[in-house]
Write a structure and sequence with these properties.
The chain has about 120 residues and is of the alpha+beta class. About 35% of the residues lie in helices and about 15% in strands. It has 3 helices and 7 strands, in the order βββββββααα. The strands form 3 sheets. It has a 3-stranded antiparallel beta sheet, with no helix packed on it. The chain has a two-stranded parallel sheet with strand order 4-7. Helix 1 crosses helix 3. The longest helix has 16 residues, at about 50-65. The chain starts with a strand and ends in a 5-residue tail after the last helix. Bound molecules: zinc ion (ZN). Zinc ion binds near residues 12, 15, 36, 38 and 41.
């Protein structure tokens, strides 16, 4: 996860040009995972229950699709080449998940650990 900066309504990561922007503190909950507006790097933010559910459903979808990553969130247009679902799935473990959900996320993380 990367630190975010905010300016003119855009969230920008610490790697992209954030000169003059204010540091984004993750005390505000969001319904969806945060990514840099320029390069799509995952930005640290606090998820609401809806946000957690959204990422968890994406993990389940990725597992259902067989982990070939073609249908996973891939950032085709940014220069950041991470596996979008994976970046945010790691964050899910910081929340209080149900036992089963936690196992599903851990299974997913384990099986995607070698994916670029
Ligand atoms: Zn960025």
């Amino acid at each position: 996860m990367f630190q975010g900066y905010i300016g003119e309504g855009e969230l920008v990561c610490e790697v992209c040009d954030h000169e003059g922007l204010e540091e984004y503190f993750s005390d505000q909950e969001t319904d969806s995972p945060c990514n840099c507006a320029y390069c799509h790097r995952p930005i640290n933010c606090v998820l609401t229950q809806d946000g957690i559910k959204y990422v968890y459903e994406s993990v389940r979808e990725a597992l259902k699709n067989g982990l070939n990553a073609r249908s996973d969130w891939r950032w085709e247009y940014g220069w950041y080449k991470g596996l979008g679902v994976r970046d945010h799935a790691e964050q899910l473990l910081e929340y209080n998940l149900e036992k089963k959900a936690k196992r599903v996320v851990e299974y997913y993380l384990y099986h995607t650990s070698n994916m670029p």
